[in-house]
Amino acid sequence: MSGACQGKPNNPPTHGQPFWLLAEVTYRCPLQCPYCSNPKDFASYNNQELTTQQWIDVFEQGRKLGAVQLGFSGGEPIVRQDLNELIGAGRELGYYTNLITSGVGLTEEKIKSFKKSGLDHIQVSFQASDESVNSLISGSKKAFQQKLAMAKEVKANGYPMVLNFVTHRHNIDRIDKIIELCVELKADYVELATCQYYGWAVDNLHQLLPTQEQLARAERITNEYREKLATEGNPIKLIFVTPDYYEERPKACMNGWGQIFLTVTPDGTALPCHSARMLPIEFPNVTEHSLESIWNQSQSFNHFRGYSWMKEPCASCDEKEKDFGGCRCQAFMLTGDANNTDPVCSKSEHHDKILSAREQAKTDPQTPFLYRNEKNSRQYADNIIATSNESSN
Amino acid sequence: MIDKVPALESMFRFQWEEAQQAYVLLYPEGMVKLNGPAGEILSLVDGQKSTKQIIEALNGKYPDAGGVDNDVLAFMEDAINQHWIQWVTP
Predict the structure, then answer these.
(1) ipTM for the whole complex
(2) What is the pLDDT of residues B18-70, one digit of tens each?
(3) What is the reported pTM?
(4) Chain B closest CA to A182's CA: distance in Å?
(5) Closest chain A residue to B18 measured between Cα atoms?
(6) Nearest CA-CA distance, residue A386 and chain B, Å
(7) What is the DSSP string of chain B?
(8) SS3 for A73-84, per residue?
(9) CA-based Rg of chain B, rounded to a whole angstrom?
(10) Whose CA, among A161, A198, A288, B56, lies 20 to 30 Å from A210?
Protein backbone atom coordinates (compact mmCIF):
# COMPACT_ATOMS: atom_id res chain seq x y z
CA MET A 1 0.00 0.00 0.00
CA SER A 2 1.81 3.09 1.19
CA GLY A 3 5.20 1.46 1.52
CA ALA A 4 5.18 2.71 5.09
CA CYS A 5 7.55 0.05 6.30
CA GLN A 6 10.15 0.54 3.60
CA GLY A 7 11.54 3.72 5.11
CA LYS A 8 15.05 4.12 6.50
CA PRO A 9 15.59 1.71 9.39
CA ASN A 10 16.08 4.44 12.00
CA ASN A 11 12.95 6.36 11.16
CA PRO A 12 10.29 6.70 13.84
CA PRO A 13 7.26 4.43 13.45
CA THR A 14 5.42 5.43 10.29
CA HIS A 15 2.14 4.30 8.91
CA GLY A 16 -0.15 4.77 5.95
CA GLN A 17 -3.85 5.40 5.66
CA PRO A 18 -6.46 2.98 6.98
CA PHE A 19 -7.35 1.47 3.60
CA TRP A 20 -9.84 -0.95 5.22
CA LEU A 21 -12.52 0.05 7.68
CA LEU A 22 -14.24 -2.99 9.14
CA ALA A 23 -17.50 -2.16 10.89
CA GLU A 24 -18.44 -4.99 13.23
CA VAL A 25 -21.93 -3.61 13.61
CA THR A 26 -23.14 -6.28 16.05
CA TYR A 27 -21.92 -9.37 17.90
CA ARG A 28 -25.40 -10.89 17.67
CA CYS A 29 -25.59 -13.93 15.38
CA PRO A 30 -28.02 -16.81 14.84
CA LEU A 31 -25.17 -19.28 14.20
CA GLN A 32 -22.75 -20.82 16.70
CA CYS A 33 -19.57 -21.53 14.71
CA PRO A 34 -16.86 -22.84 17.06
CA TYR A 35 -14.14 -20.87 15.20
CA CYS A 36 -15.79 -17.47 15.49
CA SER A 37 -13.25 -14.66 15.85
CA ASN A 38 -15.48 -12.61 18.16
CA PRO A 39 -14.27 -12.28 21.75
CA LYS A 40 -15.48 -15.03 24.05
CA ASP A 41 -17.20 -12.54 26.35
CA PHE A 42 -19.08 -10.91 23.43
CA ALA A 43 -22.39 -11.30 25.28
CA SER A 44 -21.37 -8.60 27.75
CA TYR A 45 -21.33 -5.98 24.94
CA ASN A 46 -24.73 -6.77 23.45
CA ASN A 47 -26.48 -3.80 25.01
CA GLN A 48 -23.84 -1.27 24.00
CA GLU A 49 -24.11 -1.13 20.20
CA LEU A 50 -23.36 2.16 18.45
CA THR A 51 -26.40 3.97 17.05
CA THR A 52 -27.03 4.52 13.34
CA GLN A 53 -25.78 8.10 13.56
CA GLN A 54 -22.66 7.09 15.48
CA TRP A 55 -21.79 4.57 12.77
CA ILE A 56 -22.34 7.07 9.98
CA ASP A 57 -20.11 9.52 11.82
CA VAL A 58 -17.38 6.85 12.00
CA PHE A 59 -17.73 6.22 8.24
CA GLU A 60 -17.36 9.94 7.50
CA GLN A 61 -14.25 10.21 9.62
CA GLY A 62 -12.78 7.03 8.10
CA ARG A 63 -13.30 8.32 4.57
CA LYS A 64 -11.47 11.55 5.43
CA LEU A 65 -8.56 9.45 6.70
CA GLY A 66 -8.38 7.74 3.30
CA ALA A 67 -10.37 4.55 3.92
CA VAL A 68 -11.72 3.04 0.69
CA GLN A 69 -13.04 -0.39 1.59
CA LEU A 70 -15.88 -0.57 4.08
CA GLY A 71 -16.83 -3.99 5.45
CA PHE A 72 -20.08 -4.71 7.28
CA SER A 73 -19.37 -7.62 9.53
CA GLY A 74 -20.30 -8.97 12.94
CA GLY A 75 -21.72 -11.20 14.39
CA GLU A 76 -24.30 -11.28 11.68
CA PRO A 77 -24.66 -7.72 10.29
CA ILE A 78 -28.13 -8.44 8.88
CA VAL A 79 -29.40 -8.53 12.46
CA ARG A 80 -29.05 -4.72 12.50
CA GLN A 81 -32.39 -3.23 11.43
CA ASP A 82 -30.63 -0.11 10.09
CA LEU A 83 -28.19 -1.99 7.85
CA ASN A 84 -29.75 -0.62 4.67
CA GLU A 85 -29.29 2.91 5.92
CA LEU A 86 -25.68 2.23 6.92
CA ILE A 87 -24.92 0.74 3.47
CA GLY A 88 -26.46 3.78 1.78
CA ALA A 89 -24.41 6.18 3.90
CA GLY A 90 -21.20 4.25 3.21
CA ARG A 91 -21.76 4.19 -0.52
CA GLU A 92 -22.73 7.87 -0.59
CA LEU A 93 -19.35 8.65 0.99
CA GLY A 94 -17.57 6.84 -1.85
CA TYR A 95 -16.66 3.59 -0.12
CA TYR A 96 -16.61 0.24 -1.86
CA THR A 97 -19.14 -1.48 0.37
CA ASN A 98 -18.77 -5.15 1.34
CA LEU A 99 -21.37 -7.19 3.21
CA ILE A 100 -19.85 -10.15 5.02
CA THR A 101 -22.71 -12.43 5.97
CA SER A 102 -23.65 -16.00 6.84
CA GLY A 103 -26.70 -15.55 4.59
CA VAL A 104 -28.97 -16.42 7.50
CA GLY A 105 -31.63 -13.75 7.80
CA LEU A 106 -31.03 -12.61 4.22
CA THR A 107 -34.02 -12.46 1.87
CA GLU A 108 -34.52 -11.72 -1.81
CA GLU A 109 -36.09 -8.38 -0.84
CA LYS A 110 -33.12 -7.41 1.30
CA ILE A 111 -30.65 -8.34 -1.46
CA LYS A 112 -32.58 -6.06 -3.81
CA SER A 113 -32.93 -3.17 -1.40
CA PHE A 114 -29.23 -3.34 -0.43
CA LYS A 115 -28.44 -3.10 -4.15
CA LYS A 116 -30.59 0.01 -4.42
CA SER A 117 -28.71 1.51 -1.49
CA GLY A 118 -25.45 0.94 -3.39
CA LEU A 119 -24.04 -2.24 -1.87
CA ASP A 120 -21.11 -3.34 -4.07
CA HIS A 121 -20.37 -6.89 -2.98
CA ILE A 122 -21.69 -9.72 -0.84
CA GLN A 123 -19.54 -12.38 0.75
CA VAL A 124 -21.43 -15.46 1.94
CA SER A 125 -19.75 -17.81 4.38
CA PHE A 126 -20.35 -21.54 4.27
CA GLN A 127 -19.38 -24.09 6.89
CA ALA A 128 -19.25 -27.09 4.54
CA SER A 129 -20.29 -28.39 1.12
CA ASP A 130 -23.06 -30.55 2.51
CA GLU A 131 -25.91 -30.17 4.90
CA SER A 132 -24.81 -32.47 7.71
CA VAL A 133 -21.33 -31.05 8.30
CA ASN A 134 -22.69 -27.54 7.83
CA SER A 135 -25.25 -28.19 10.56
CA LEU A 136 -22.62 -29.72 12.85
CA ILE A 137 -20.43 -26.63 12.59
CA SER A 138 -23.01 -23.86 12.48
CA GLY A 139 -25.29 -25.37 15.10
CA SER A 140 -28.25 -24.76 12.76
CA LYS A 141 -30.12 -27.38 10.73
CA LYS A 142 -31.74 -24.95 8.29
CA ALA A 143 -28.72 -22.79 7.50
CA PHE A 144 -27.33 -24.73 4.54
CA GLN A 145 -30.37 -24.60 2.25
CA GLN A 146 -30.82 -20.93 3.13
CA LYS A 147 -27.21 -20.19 2.16
CA LEU A 148 -27.56 -21.98 -1.18
CA ALA A 149 -30.72 -20.05 -2.00
CA MET A 150 -29.19 -16.72 -1.01
CA ALA A 151 -25.93 -17.30 -2.92
CA LYS A 152 -28.04 -17.85 -6.06
CA GLU A 153 -30.00 -14.64 -5.38
CA VAL A 154 -26.79 -12.66 -4.88
CA LYS A 155 -25.60 -13.63 -8.36
CA ALA A 156 -29.06 -13.21 -9.90
CA ASN A 157 -28.97 -9.60 -8.70
CA GLY A 158 -25.67 -8.88 -10.40
CA TYR A 159 -23.37 -8.61 -7.40
CA PRO A 160 -19.79 -9.82 -7.45
CA MET A 161 -19.80 -12.73 -5.00
CA VAL A 162 -17.11 -14.12 -2.75
CA LEU A 163 -17.79 -17.45 -1.09
CA ASN A 164 -15.87 -18.09 2.07
CA PHE A 165 -15.32 -21.61 3.38
CA VAL A 166 -13.50 -21.88 6.67
CA THR A 167 -11.75 -25.21 6.36
CA HIS A 168 -10.75 -27.53 9.19
CA ARG A 169 -10.32 -31.24 9.90
CA HIS A 170 -14.05 -31.98 9.49
CA ASN A 171 -14.53 -30.54 6.00
CA ILE A 172 -11.09 -30.20 4.36
CA ASP A 173 -11.16 -33.74 2.92
CA ARG A 174 -14.16 -32.71 0.82
CA ILE A 175 -12.42 -29.74 -0.74
CA ASP A 176 -13.26 -31.08 -4.22
CA LYS A 177 -16.99 -30.94 -3.37
CA ILE A 178 -16.56 -27.46 -1.90
CA ILE A 179 -14.89 -26.16 -5.07
CA GLU A 180 -17.52 -27.80 -7.28
CA LEU A 181 -20.28 -26.18 -5.26
CA CYS A 182 -18.62 -22.77 -5.67
CA VAL A 183 -18.32 -23.26 -9.43
CA GLU A 184 -21.98 -24.27 -9.58
CA LEU A 185 -22.97 -21.16 -7.60
CA LYS A 186 -20.88 -19.00 -10.00
CA ALA A 187 -18.72 -17.44 -7.31
CA ASP A 188 -16.20 -14.85 -8.52
CA TYR A 189 -13.75 -15.51 -5.71
CA VAL A 190 -13.54 -18.46 -3.34
CA GLU A 191 -11.68 -18.18 -0.08
CA LEU A 192 -10.67 -21.61 1.13
CA ALA A 193 -9.49 -20.20 4.39
CA THR A 194 -8.09 -22.58 6.93
CA CYS A 195 -9.30 -21.74 10.36
CA GLN A 196 -7.21 -19.18 12.24
CA TYR A 197 -6.85 -19.86 15.94
CA TYR A 198 -8.27 -16.79 17.64
CA GLY A 199 -11.39 -16.18 19.70
CA TRP A 200 -13.49 -19.32 20.01
CA ALA A 201 -11.20 -21.34 17.76
CA VAL A 202 -8.48 -21.40 20.42
CA ASP A 203 -10.72 -23.49 22.69
CA ASN A 204 -11.52 -25.76 19.76
CA LEU A 205 -8.01 -26.08 18.38
CA HIS A 206 -7.81 -29.87 18.64
CA GLN A 207 -11.32 -30.26 17.19
CA LEU A 208 -10.44 -28.03 14.22
CA LEU A 209 -6.76 -28.26 13.25
CA PRO A 210 -6.28 -30.56 10.23
CA THR A 211 -3.26 -32.82 9.94
CA GLN A 212 -0.37 -31.93 7.68
CA GLU A 213 -1.45 -34.74 5.33
CA GLN A 214 -5.00 -33.42 5.11
CA LEU A 215 -3.65 -29.98 4.31
CA ALA A 216 -1.17 -31.13 1.66
CA ARG A 217 -3.89 -33.15 -0.06
CA ALA A 218 -6.32 -30.21 -0.04
CA GLU A 219 -3.72 -27.86 -1.50
CA ARG A 220 -2.85 -30.34 -4.24
CA ILE A 221 -6.52 -30.80 -5.18
CA THR A 222 -7.05 -27.03 -5.18
CA ASN A 223 -4.12 -26.60 -7.57
CA GLU A 224 -5.54 -29.28 -9.86
CA TYR A 225 -8.89 -27.46 -9.96
CA ARG A 226 -7.14 -24.13 -10.64
CA GLU A 227 -5.51 -25.61 -13.72
CA LYS A 228 -8.66 -27.33 -14.89
CA LEU A 229 -10.85 -24.24 -14.43
CA ALA A 230 -8.32 -21.96 -16.13
CA THR A 231 -8.19 -24.33 -19.11
CA GLU A 232 -11.97 -24.18 -19.33
CA GLY A 233 -11.74 -20.36 -19.37
CA ASN A 234 -13.56 -20.04 -16.04
CA PRO A 235 -12.46 -16.75 -14.40
CA ILE A 236 -13.25 -17.99 -10.86
CA LYS A 237 -10.36 -17.35 -8.46
CA LEU A 238 -9.53 -19.88 -5.75
CA ILE A 239 -7.66 -18.43 -2.79
CA PHE A 240 -6.14 -21.07 -0.52
CA VAL A 241 -5.06 -19.89 2.91
CA THR A 242 -2.83 -22.28 4.85
CA PRO A 243 -3.00 -22.25 8.65
CA ASP A 244 0.11 -20.66 10.08
CA TYR A 245 0.40 -23.63 12.46
CA TYR A 246 2.09 -25.45 9.57
CA GLU A 247 4.51 -22.65 8.68
CA GLU A 248 8.07 -22.06 9.89
CA ARG A 249 7.86 -18.28 9.49
CA PRO A 250 4.99 -16.14 10.76
CA LYS A 251 2.51 -14.29 8.59
CA ALA A 252 2.89 -10.53 8.07
CA CYS A 253 -0.19 -10.13 10.21
CA MET A 254 -2.53 -7.33 9.01
CA ASN A 255 0.38 -6.07 6.84
CA GLY A 256 1.81 -4.72 10.07
CA TRP A 257 0.14 -3.30 13.15
CA GLY A 258 -1.92 -0.19 12.43
CA GLN A 259 -0.79 0.02 8.80
CA ILE A 260 -3.85 -0.42 6.58
CA PHE A 261 -6.59 -1.93 8.71
CA LEU A 262 -9.00 -0.42 11.24
CA THR A 263 -11.79 -2.37 12.98
CA VAL A 264 -14.55 -0.77 15.00
CA THR A 265 -16.36 -3.18 17.33
CA PRO A 266 -20.14 -3.07 18.04
CA ASP A 267 -19.57 -0.89 21.12
CA GLY A 268 -17.21 1.50 19.32
CA THR A 269 -13.82 0.20 20.40
CA ALA A 270 -11.24 0.85 17.69
CA LEU A 271 -8.79 -2.00 17.01
CA PRO A 272 -5.93 -2.59 14.55
CA CYS A 273 -7.30 -6.10 13.92
CA HIS A 274 -10.44 -8.02 14.91
CA SER A 275 -8.84 -10.05 17.67
CA ALA A 276 -6.65 -7.37 19.29
CA ARG A 277 -9.24 -6.86 21.99
CA MET A 278 -7.72 -9.82 23.86
CA LEU A 279 -4.41 -7.97 24.37
CA PRO A 280 -3.60 -6.26 27.69
CA ILE A 281 -3.75 -2.88 25.97
CA GLU A 282 -6.41 -0.25 26.43
CA PHE A 283 -7.99 0.56 23.08
CA PRO A 284 -9.75 3.87 22.44
CA ASN A 285 -13.46 4.20 21.74
CA VAL A 286 -14.91 6.19 18.83
CA THR A 287 -17.50 7.72 21.16
CA GLU A 288 -14.68 9.43 23.08
CA HIS A 289 -11.98 10.12 20.48
CA SER A 290 -11.87 11.14 16.84
CA LEU A 291 -10.84 8.43 14.38
CA GLU A 292 -8.00 10.69 13.27
CA SER A 293 -6.50 10.87 16.75
CA ILE A 294 -7.06 7.15 17.27
CA TRP A 295 -5.28 6.23 14.03
CA ASN A 296 -2.46 8.74 14.20
CA GLN A 297 -1.86 9.53 17.84
CA SER A 298 -3.25 6.86 20.15
CA GLN A 299 -0.73 4.86 22.15
CA SER A 300 -2.43 1.62 21.28
CA PHE A 301 -2.24 2.11 17.51
CA ASN A 302 1.38 3.25 17.79
CA HIS A 303 2.24 0.42 20.17
CA PHE A 304 3.64 -2.08 17.65
CA ARG A 305 4.36 0.26 14.75
CA GLY A 306 7.97 0.29 13.60
CA TYR A 307 10.56 -2.07 15.08
CA SER A 308 11.71 -0.56 18.38
CA TRP A 309 9.28 -2.66 20.46
CA MET A 310 10.79 -5.91 19.23
CA LYS A 311 12.66 -8.38 21.39
CA GLU A 312 15.09 -11.04 20.23
CA PRO A 313 15.15 -12.99 17.97
CA CYS A 314 13.04 -10.44 15.99
CA ALA A 315 15.08 -7.32 16.82
CA SER A 316 18.19 -8.49 14.97
CA CYS A 317 16.40 -10.66 12.41
CA ASP A 318 16.92 -9.82 8.75
CA GLU A 319 13.35 -10.92 7.98
CA LYS A 320 11.62 -8.52 10.38
CA GLU A 321 10.65 -6.11 7.60
CA LYS A 322 8.96 -9.00 5.82
CA ASP A 323 6.75 -10.33 8.62
CA PHE A 324 6.96 -7.69 11.41
CA GLY A 325 7.48 -10.51 13.93
CA GLY A 326 4.14 -12.11 13.06
CA CYS A 327 0.93 -11.82 15.01
CA ARG A 328 0.85 -9.95 18.34
CA CYS A 329 -2.27 -11.77 19.50
CA GLN A 330 -0.76 -15.18 18.83
CA ALA A 331 2.44 -14.18 20.64
CA PHE A 332 0.37 -13.09 23.62
CA MET A 333 -1.88 -16.16 23.63
CA LEU A 334 0.91 -18.70 23.37
CA THR A 335 3.73 -17.01 25.33
CA GLY A 336 1.96 -14.57 27.64
CA ASP A 337 3.94 -11.62 26.23
CA ALA A 338 2.70 -9.72 23.18
CA ASN A 339 6.23 -8.38 22.52
CA ASN A 340 7.57 -11.85 21.86
CA THR A 341 8.19 -13.41 18.47
CA ASP A 342 5.11 -15.16 17.09
CA PRO A 343 5.76 -18.82 18.08
CA VAL A 344 4.96 -19.91 14.53
CA CYS A 345 8.52 -18.79 13.77
CA SER A 346 10.99 -21.65 14.14
CA LYS A 347 13.42 -19.14 15.68
CA SER A 348 11.03 -18.60 18.60
CA GLU A 349 11.91 -20.36 21.84
CA HIS A 350 8.19 -21.15 22.15
CA HIS A 351 7.93 -22.86 18.75
CA ASP A 352 7.38 -26.16 20.59
CA LYS A 353 3.82 -24.99 21.32
CA ILE A 354 3.13 -25.10 17.59
CA LEU A 355 4.93 -28.41 17.15
CA SER A 356 2.88 -30.05 19.90
CA ALA A 357 -0.38 -28.77 18.33
CA ARG A 358 0.71 -30.46 15.10
CA GLU A 359 1.39 -33.67 17.03
CA GLN A 360 -1.97 -33.44 18.76
CA ALA A 361 -3.68 -33.04 15.37
CA LYS A 362 -2.60 -36.62 14.55
CA THR A 363 -4.92 -37.91 17.30
CA ASP A 364 -8.70 -37.83 17.36
CA PRO A 365 -10.23 -35.17 19.58
CA GLN A 366 -12.19 -36.67 22.47
CA THR A 367 -14.12 -33.60 23.62
CA PRO A 368 -17.02 -31.96 21.77
CA PHE A 369 -16.98 -28.47 20.24
CA LEU A 370 -17.39 -25.48 22.47
CA TYR A 371 -20.04 -23.60 20.51
CA ARG A 372 -20.05 -19.83 20.19
CA ASN A 373 -23.36 -18.82 21.71
CA GLU A 374 -24.82 -16.44 24.24
CA LYS A 375 -24.95 -19.05 27.02
CA ASN A 376 -21.30 -20.09 26.70
CA SER A 377 -20.25 -16.47 26.29
CA ARG A 378 -22.05 -15.45 29.49
CA GLN A 379 -19.80 -17.86 31.38
CA TYR A 380 -16.73 -16.03 30.12
CA ALA A 381 -18.31 -12.68 30.81
CA ASP A 382 -19.24 -13.80 34.34
CA ASN A 383 -15.74 -15.11 34.93
CA ILE A 384 -14.26 -11.79 33.92
CA ILE A 385 -16.63 -9.92 36.20
CA ALA A 386 -15.84 -12.31 39.08
CA THR A 387 -12.11 -11.90 38.56
CA SER A 388 -12.28 -8.12 38.45
CA ASN A 389 -14.41 -8.11 41.64
CA GLU A 390 -11.85 -10.24 43.40
CA SER A 391 -9.01 -7.99 42.41
CA SER A 392 -10.84 -4.88 43.59
CA ASN A 393 -11.59 -6.38 47.02
CA MET B 1 -10.14 -3.72 -31.65
CA ILE B 2 -10.29 -0.17 -32.96
CA ASP B 3 -14.04 -0.32 -33.65
CA LYS B 4 -14.97 -2.29 -30.55
CA VAL B 5 -16.73 -0.70 -27.59
CA PRO B 6 -15.26 -1.36 -24.13
CA ALA B 7 -17.26 -1.38 -20.90
CA LEU B 8 -16.15 -1.91 -17.33
CA GLU B 9 -16.65 -5.47 -16.03
CA SER B 10 -19.37 -5.63 -13.38
CA MET B 11 -16.80 -6.78 -10.82
CA PHE B 12 -15.19 -3.32 -10.78
CA ARG B 13 -16.05 0.19 -9.75
CA PHE B 14 -14.00 3.06 -11.16
CA GLN B 15 -13.57 6.33 -9.33
CA TRP B 16 -11.26 9.25 -8.55
CA GLU B 17 -9.74 8.71 -5.12
CA GLU B 18 -8.81 11.99 -3.44
CA ALA B 19 -6.60 10.39 -0.76
CA GLN B 20 -4.59 8.57 -3.47
CA GLN B 21 -4.66 11.46 -5.94
CA ALA B 22 -5.36 8.84 -8.57
CA TYR B 23 -8.10 6.98 -10.39
CA VAL B 24 -8.68 3.55 -8.87
CA LEU B 25 -10.51 0.34 -9.68
CA LEU B 26 -12.31 -1.07 -6.68
CA TYR B 27 -13.33 -4.71 -6.34
CA PRO B 28 -14.29 -7.00 -3.44
CA GLU B 29 -11.87 -6.19 -0.64
CA GLY B 30 -9.26 -4.74 -2.99
CA MET B 31 -8.12 -1.82 -5.11
CA VAL B 32 -5.99 -1.21 -8.18
CA LYS B 33 -4.35 2.21 -8.19
CA LEU B 34 -4.11 3.34 -11.81
CA ASN B 35 -1.30 5.41 -13.26
CA GLY B 36 -2.14 8.68 -15.01
CA PRO B 37 -2.64 7.45 -18.60
CA ALA B 38 -4.56 4.30 -17.52
CA GLY B 39 -6.89 6.43 -15.41
CA GLU B 40 -7.45 8.88 -18.27
CA ILE B 41 -8.31 6.08 -20.67
CA LEU B 42 -10.66 4.27 -18.27
CA SER B 43 -12.45 7.51 -17.43
CA LEU B 44 -13.65 7.52 -21.05
CA VAL B 45 -14.80 3.87 -21.01
CA ASP B 46 -18.58 4.07 -20.76
CA GLY B 47 -20.01 1.22 -22.82
CA GLN B 48 -20.85 3.73 -25.58
CA LYS B 49 -17.62 5.04 -27.06
CA SER B 50 -15.49 2.82 -29.31
CA THR B 51 -11.75 2.48 -28.84
CA LYS B 52 -11.36 4.73 -31.87
CA GLN B 53 -13.51 7.44 -30.32
CA ILE B 54 -11.54 7.21 -27.07
CA ILE B 55 -8.29 7.65 -29.00
CA GLU B 56 -9.70 10.67 -30.83
CA ALA B 57 -10.90 12.23 -27.60
CA LEU B 58 -7.48 11.82 -25.96
CA ASN B 59 -5.60 13.09 -29.03
CA GLY B 60 -7.90 16.12 -28.95
CA LYS B 61 -7.25 16.67 -25.25
CA TYR B 62 -3.47 16.17 -25.50
CA PRO B 63 -2.47 17.50 -28.94
CA ASP B 64 1.19 17.69 -27.91
CA ALA B 65 1.43 14.00 -26.91
CA GLY B 66 2.20 12.99 -30.49
CA GLY B 67 -0.67 10.48 -30.79
CA VAL B 68 -1.80 8.12 -28.04
CA ASP B 69 -3.12 5.47 -30.46
CA ASN B 70 -0.64 2.72 -29.59
CA ASP B 71 -0.81 3.40 -25.85
CA VAL B 72 -4.58 3.07 -25.84
CA LEU B 73 -4.52 -0.12 -27.92
CA ALA B 74 -1.91 -1.67 -25.63
CA PHE B 75 -3.92 -0.68 -22.58
CA MET B 76 -7.15 -2.16 -23.97
CA GLU B 77 -5.45 -5.46 -24.62
CA ASP B 78 -4.04 -5.53 -21.11
CA ALA B 79 -7.37 -4.50 -19.56
CA ILE B 80 -9.19 -7.29 -21.41
CA ASN B 81 -6.62 -9.83 -20.15
CA GLN B 82 -7.02 -8.54 -16.59
CA HIS B 83 -10.82 -8.82 -16.90
CA TRP B 84 -11.17 -5.09 -16.10
CA ILE B 85 -13.19 -4.46 -19.27
CA GLN B 86 -15.18 -6.44 -21.80
CA TRP B 87 -16.33 -5.69 -25.36
CA VAL B 88 -19.99 -4.83 -25.60
CA THR B 89 -22.61 -3.91 -28.16
CA PRO B 90 -23.86 -0.46 -27.22
Answers:
(1) 0.90
(2) 988 999 999 998 999 999 999 999 999 999 999 999 999 999 999 888 888 99
(3) 0.90
(4) 16
(5) A66
(6) 40
(7) -TT-EEEE-TT-EEEEETTTTEEEEEETTEEEEPPHHHHHHHTT-SSSS-HHHHHHHHHHH-GGGS--HHHHHHHHHHHHHTTSEEEE--
(8) ECCCHHHCCCHH
(9) 13
(10) A161
